[in-house]
Amino acid sequence: MADYYEILGITKGASQDEVKKAFHKLAHKHHPDKGGDEKKFKEINEAYQVLSDTTKRAQYDQYGRVFDQGQPGGDQGFNWAWGNRPQGDVEFDMGDIGEVFEQFFGGGFGGARQSTKKDSKKGKDIQVDIEIELERALKDSIEKINLSKQITCNRCQGNGAEPGSKIKECVTCRGVGQVQQVKKTMFGSYTTLATCPECKGEGTTPEKPCNVCKGEGRTKGQEIIEINIPAGIDTNQTIRVDGKGEAGRKGAKAGNLFVRIFIKEHSIFERRGDDLFSQVNINFSQAALGDEVEIKSLEGTNILLQVPEGTESGKVLRISGKGIPHYGGYGRGNMYIELKVKTPKKLGRKQKELMEELRKEGL
Q: pTM for the complete prediction?
């Protein structure tokens, strides 16, 4: 490998200003973007990195090309990137050494180091909780909710531009949304891709931003949303409504709305899965002789429940198909009625006489 001074065409006693002028002249001549020799340009750039820094230049003058030790072939380990190279002097950034080592030892050091982080324009998801009555689980229904959120701007229809003005390609990134940043360290140069500061990664900019949303394409507002609640839904189940979350920036895809359901406690029925449980009080004679008892269903209609004679307190009767519809399927759960024999606390004279007669009969 040629001597750094020879590469730049200067003497060992050249001033820093002469080093700079020699580099600019040769870099302009051999720049790959201008049809120059890339290999030659690498050598020129490497020489300038060392000789433009007084400390590294002194080390080089004393020890020679120490940075090539352990690197067969000199600069074979470096893959230089020249696109969008910043103009003027570039200082070595010792704070970038950690990133360089990560590039070297964490995944190889060939090629430009690109950033994968990119701001998303997609709107955020929203989650809300709503409470409904148990009866609402019997059939499909609609719930309306009023949400305060980011909505599409009515003036610009979400594109961020004042009506009548054009949306043009970003002149900084030329529509790509990213720009290259070339950083130099004592180990060499490398590039990173960063979000374009002009268009914020979108690749376009409006000639005149919307007066209402200031170019965001969305504003704070309210929207009434209809939620389809399917039959059989239960507590802690979630309904997703696509595209009803926060509006995206500049017409980007909106987020989703997630509605978590809670079922209110019922005054009569307890839900266990798709089955309903309740209790019915009957008197002693109904339990002993049997009877028909009228009870209410969850729909509000009356059902005749046949109480068999000799029923003991705590007996459970089942009514098939009167529970909750199976979620997303066919059929319904069952209704279970627990019979409670009611013991009277006060008896009238006639009742006492009858009870005495029953006692004499062994009842």
A: 0.59
